[in-house]
Amino acid sequence: MIRADSSILLEVHDLHANVEDTEILKGLNLTVKRGEIHAIMGLNGSGKSTFAKVLAGHPAYRMTGGEILFNGMDITSLAPEERARAGLFLAFQYPVEIPGVANDQFLRLAYNTVQRQRGKEELDPLEFDDFVREKMKLLDMNPGFLDRSVNEGFSGGEKKRNEILQMALLEPMLAVLDETDSGLDIDALRIVAKGVNQLASQDNALILVTHYQRLLDYIEPDYVHVMEAGRIIKTSGKELALELEAHGYDWISGDKTRASGVQP
To answer: Which string of b and e fits 199-228 if b means at least 16 CB within 10 Å?
Structure first.
């Protein structure tokens, strides 16, 4: 199915998904346009990270109903790598270590794969080395990380910076950051947020999955959504995150006027 409105980057309609035999997402709706930043908040177990993984096509998360349109294309049947080549990026809450695979080789392979998909020129090792070192300056990363195995022995903050470095290289149309602020001290949070903000543009979009207002002090969202029991139950502007910080989630759970999850 193709949508005529080219400003819409992501449309999620009545999304249902299971993990093993348990239904986690129960009719989630969301629309994201180019140039927008959306924050998704909610208590543990509300389905936030499940939603992020379903978008990326994680094989352990089975979509059982609904529709996901990305850049006008139904991506339901696409494998994770096909979604990535199409311009969808997921930064993991817990990035995995890949012993024996050098970070620079991993990053160059990912970059050239996307370049090839876009019909653009690939970079040889020397060209890529210059290119990636410039990107690393956005995140105050030591170039020595290029010679180490992917995430092996990295601190939590270093792993998160490495995820945003991948985002900077791949230049996705839609980046989903799954609790990127988790485990970061305030200095690392500022650096990561600075890198994310420099990558945001009117041609791409960003979804932030987070528990905390503090990330939104540095990356200002256009919309804040609250998830509960596998659905988006309230949508508002950035002020909603401040209300959640001050009052928690109980007042929303008792609110009988619940938003559909599709912003006005």
So the answer is: bbeeebbbbbbbeebebbebbebbbbbbbb
